[in-house]
């Protein structure tokens, strides 16, 4: 299965790159922290080399030994996996659910640093994320320019035109999800050209297209909205780099068009899946735009900094997003987060990992309804914007999956197809 090749080939590659990154920063650690920094780097590398060996030789998954606040939850989850294995011994790297061991690897990378101060706050993926952003400059400029031109006459757009613009920016955000560094094991996946020009040609590759439903939800929320209640949209982020920029433009459009009054962004509290957005990445991106010597890029950055200051944009992270649990257990494991999401009018879940966690990462029949696969996770109306990079997909029409499979065996994992898949949460 795709899961097998991911664990066998991609994850060891990612660990090798992490080890290499730490090694290359040895001098920096020495300059900042002296011998202590170098010692910490050596210990972290030895920890990660051991981890890579455990993975490649299918050793049992071991409990976490660090002091981070989520360690107990991870270790409880390991016990839960032990009970699932029906007495077949310990869960191991190749004998466990893919979602679990993949998340576990990233958490162990975090442990390697957390247990080795003074380099505990070093983000081993930061360079790759920054590089991906800079390599997408052309696309960034094209999108910022398009958007700032759009803002000039956004007040004059009629409902039909607003809908068209929303659909365009939803698609840019959808296809922005192709820029995923964990999928390419850290190889360059940046968006080189303007994403707006190819949208028309990509429509046939959207397998489930519920954009109309999103539009009517937002328009109706606006109409029902009294002075007292704000329309709130939450974006559960995926990758930093160009994808994050496409999400920020979409969020700004929602505010500027008055389709929403506030947007809440949810990122990761630790470096995750190579290119996932952390608070540092979020702030760094806005700073990069502000200081760009391109008029429309800096205008975007300045406006977005303003949105954060005014509180119409809110960034938050929660450790639940970097736990191995699928979302159907959020209400039990993170009731505070679930209660917060219930205040939203619309949840937009970006990307493949979120889709896997929404659907429990099971090998569903393609025609199983999305609502059913969510397994009672319904805090608010939600929509997944995702390009397919793993072999789980629900909510297709009868025969649709089989038809594509016949001509394209890799269709579920090559990032060529996407979904804008909505569930009304009723």
Structure characterization notes:
By secondary structure, the chain is an alpha/beta fold. It folds into two domains: 2-115, Up-down Bundle (Transcription Elongation Factor S-II, Chain A); 125-423, no CATH class. It is built from 18 helices and seven strands. It has a seven-stranded mixed beta sheet with strand order 1-7-6-5-2-3-4. Helix 1 packs parallel to helix 5 and helix 7 runs parallel beside helix 11 (242-256). The protein is globular and about 60 Å long. The chain starts with a helix and ends with a strand. Its EC number is 2.1.1.-, 3.1.3.-. Its cofactor is Mn(2+); Ni(2+). One of its GO terms (biological process) is DNA damage response. InterPro entries: ARMT-1-like_metal-bd_sf, ARMT1, ARMT1-like_metal-bd.
Shape: globular
Please bin the fraction of helical residues. 40-55%
- Order of strands in the sheet with the most strands? 1-7-6-5-2-3-4
Give the N-to-C terminal Cα separation. 35 Å
Family: Belongs to the damage-control phosphatase family. Sugar phosphate phosphatase III subfamily.
Pfam families: ARMT1-like_dom
Protein name: Sugar phosphate phosphatase
Cofactor: Mn(2+); Ni(2+)
């Amino acid at each position: 299965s795709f899961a097998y090749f991911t664990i066998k080939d991609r994850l060891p590659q990612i660990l090798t790159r992490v080890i290499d990154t730490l090694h290359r920063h040895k001098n920096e650690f020495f300059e900042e922290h002296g011998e202590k920094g170098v010692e910490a780097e050596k210990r972290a590398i030895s920890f990660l080399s051991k981890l890579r060996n455990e993975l490649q030789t299918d050793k049992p998954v071991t409990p976490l030994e660090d002091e981070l606040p989520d360690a107990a939850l991870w270790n409880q989850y390991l016990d839960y996996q032990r009970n699932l294995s029906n007495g077949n011994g310990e869960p191991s790297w190749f004998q466990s659910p893919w979602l679990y061991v993949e998340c576990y690897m990233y958490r162990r990378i975090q442990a390697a640093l957390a247990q080795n101060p003074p380099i505990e706050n070093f983000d081993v993926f930061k360079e790759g994320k920054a590089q991906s952003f800079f390599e997408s400059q052309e696309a960034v400029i094209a999108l910022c320019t398009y958007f700032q031109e759009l803002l000039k006459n956004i007040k004059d757009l009629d409902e039909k035109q607003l809908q068209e613009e929303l659909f365009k920016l939803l698609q840019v955000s959808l296809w922005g999800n192709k820029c995923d560094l964990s999928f390419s094991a850290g190889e360059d996946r940046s968006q080189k050209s303007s994403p707006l020009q190819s949208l028309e040609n990509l429509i046939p590759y959207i397998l489930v297209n519920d954009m109309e439903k999103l539009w009517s939800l937002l328009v109706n929320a606006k109409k029902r909205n009294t002075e007292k209640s704000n329309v709130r949209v939450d974006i559960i982020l995926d990758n930093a780099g160009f994808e994050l920029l496409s999400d920020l433009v979409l969020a700004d459009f929602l505010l500027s068009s008055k389709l929403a009054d506030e947007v809440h962004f949810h990122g990761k509290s630790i470096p995750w899946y190579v290119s996932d957005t952390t608070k540092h990445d979020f702030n760094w991106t806005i700073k990069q735009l502000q200081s760009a010597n391109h008029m429309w890029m800096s205008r975007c950055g300045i406006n977005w900094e303003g949105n954060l200051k005014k509180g119409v944009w809110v960034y938050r992270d929660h450790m639940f997003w970097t736990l191995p649990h699928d979302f159907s257990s959020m209400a039990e494991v993170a009731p505070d987060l679930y209660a917060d999401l219930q205040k939203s009018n619309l949840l937009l879940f970006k990307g493949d990992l979120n889709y896997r966690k929404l659907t429990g990462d099971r090998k569903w029949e393609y025609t199983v309804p999305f609502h059913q696969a969510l397994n009672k996770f319904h805090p608010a109306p939600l929509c997944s914007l995702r390009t397919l990079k793993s072999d789980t997909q629900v909510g297709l029409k009868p025969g649709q999956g089989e038809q594509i499979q016949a001509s394209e065996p890799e269709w579920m994992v090559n990032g060529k197809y996407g979904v804008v898949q909505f569930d009304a949460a009723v």
